[in-house]
Amino acid sequence: MVTQVERDDGTWYACEDCGFMLEDREDAERHEEHCDAEEPTYIQ
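== DUF7128 domain-containing protein ==
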């Protein structure tokens, strides 16, 4: 499930499995469908 997150610069949508955040809800839902539930390797 995608969660809505309010930030200073607007609304973001986060993947509940890995925490990846996107500005577009549809993109976040599409990401979550293919998410392997691990933190993305590019987040440090």
